[in-house]
């Protein structure tokens, strides 16, 4: 890893721990093990380092988003459900296990109340942007399930909120598989309760199972 890349990575790590405002060029240089002059040879100031971090995050996030670039008009109901399930779990894994993304998220959370740019980025990547994407799928699923009277925006919020709660609970823990299992249970329960989704079983092709994880019961049809 070259010096410029090390500066970028170490700066983000410091920003994630102390916030952007709480870190100086001197501290970044010390963490990298170079002089302040070496920092300035690659970046004119701290803002330039931050701008490079944001650009890198955009590249990384776009690569992740490309996996879920689909036209809902081309999906049937089961394909749509699979897409939203995969998207939800992928978001959890990405923001907790990708070191760059995880540190970027921590930095935004620290700075969101004193830096409007950080607040906007947090909205884009982890709150409003995710809700908007989810709302698109839920609206179509509600239509397919004859639940067009539901408040799609509220449903999208109710669907996404547990993702962030579980993400916060497990960010610094090793038991990520348990977190993924909880997410899967939440997804099944949400779709079953709110959108009347019935999961196919491996038995009779005409048999379906409605799963209600709140009562831990399965009703066969």
The percent range for helix content is 55-70%
Please tell me how large the radius of gyration is. Answer: 21 Å
- Write the element-wise H/E pattern from the N-terminal end onward: HHHHHHHHHHEEE
Span between termini:
58 Å
Physical arrangement of strands within the biggest beta sheet: 1-2-3
The backbone outline, from C-alpha atoms, is: elongated
Count of the separate structural domains: 2
> What's the total count of β strands?
3
Quote the beta fraction.
under 5%
What structural class do helix, strand and pairing data support? mainly alpha
- Mean model confidence by pLDDT: 82
How would you sum up the major sheet?
A: 3 strands, antiparallel
Note the total helix count: 10
What are the low-pLDDT stretches, counting only 5+ consecutive residues below 50?
200-221
Tell me about this structure.
This protein has 221 residues and is mainly alpha-helical. The chain has 2 domains: 1-54, Orthogonal Bundle (Arc Repressor Mutant, subunit A); 70-220, no CATH class. It is built from 10 helices and 3 strands. The chain has a 3-stranded antiparallel beta sheet with strand order 1-2-3. Strand 1 and strand 2 form a beta hairpin. It is elongated, with a radius of gyration of 21 Å. The termini are far apart.
